[in-house]
């Protein structure tokens, strides 16, 4: 496995690749990547969620990692937030911050043992990207969301069409409502020069009530 860095993350192909990389990266992820790369996406996603959310949740943070989304949600202390991630080491780092109600180790490319219709919001930053999780996982997230639940999901723009996300949203049109895409920068101005033009589609929608 390559040394943990952005290029190694973008080269991931399988769930086992993810586990191996983030096991090695968890201890230094916030400082060696999030801070150094001026990684703005988690904060952006957190602010969008706060802007569109109605109700108190609970919230599922998908691909929660070290908790970068949760720590940026305004008034997060008023919310019950659960963390889901494939990496136990990353979840252990987020647990040190005391941000979540529960910590769920799960691989979204496989069936997930979570009951139907229990979350009032689903949020994710950086999970639907290079070699991580494909559009089929959206079916699982819809299953575990309450009718009317709000979704704020970031999707790497480079792969939005090529990896089937555009087609997926068209296919689930009858299951969701108020779909809106916001295209925003992933990194701030002090981030890596070779990734200054990297953007994310922020998909904002609700699970359609029955």
From TrEMBL:
Q: Kindly list the GO molecular function terms attached to this UniProt entry.
A: S-adenosylmethionine-dependent methyltransferase activity
All copies of the Methyltransferase type domain together span: 60-152
Task: Please name the InterPro entries in this protein's record.
Answer: Methyltransf_11, SAM-dependent_MTases_sf
Question: Which terms are listed as keywords in the entry?
Answer: Methyltransferase, Transferase
Name one process (GO BP) from the record: methylation
Output the superkingdom of the source species: Bacteria
This protein's record includes keyword Transferase: yes
Q: Where is the signal peptide?
A: none
- UniProt KW Methyltransferase keyword: yes
Taken from the record, one Pfam family name reads Methyltransf_11
Q: Which residues form a coiled coil?
A: none
Matching PANTHER family, A to Z? METHYLTRANSFERASE, RHODANESE DOMAIN-CONTAINING PROTEIN
Name this polypeptide is given: Putative TPR repeat methyltransferase
Organism, scientific name: Sulfitobacter noctilucicola
């Amino acid at each position: 496995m390559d040394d943990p860095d952005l290029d190694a993350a973008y080269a991931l192909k399988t769930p086992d690749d993810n586990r191996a990389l983030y096991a090695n990266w968890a201890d230094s992820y916030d400082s060696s990547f999030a801070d150094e790369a001026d990684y703005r996406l988690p904060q952006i996603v957190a602010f969008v969620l706060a802007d569109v959310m109605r109700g108190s949740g609970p919230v599922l943070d998908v691909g929660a990692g070290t908790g970068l989304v949760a720590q940026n949600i305004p008034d997060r202390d008023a919310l019950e937030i659960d963390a889901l991630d494939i990496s136990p080491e990353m979840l252990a780092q987020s647990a040190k911050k005391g941000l979540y109600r529960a910590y769920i180790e799960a691989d979204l490319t496989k069936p997930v043992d979570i009951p139907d219709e229990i979350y009032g919001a689903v949020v994710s930053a950086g999970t639907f990207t290079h070699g991580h999780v494909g559009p089929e996982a959206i079916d699982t997230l819809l299953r575990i969301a309450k009718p009317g639940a709000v979704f704020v999901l970031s999707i790497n723009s480079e792969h939005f069409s090529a990896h089937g996300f555009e087609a997926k949203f068209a296919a689930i049109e009858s299951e969701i409502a108020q779909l809106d895409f916001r295209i925003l920068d992933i990194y701030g101005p002090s981030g890596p020069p070779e990734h200054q033009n990297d953007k994310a589609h922020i998909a904002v929608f609700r699970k359609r009530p029955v």
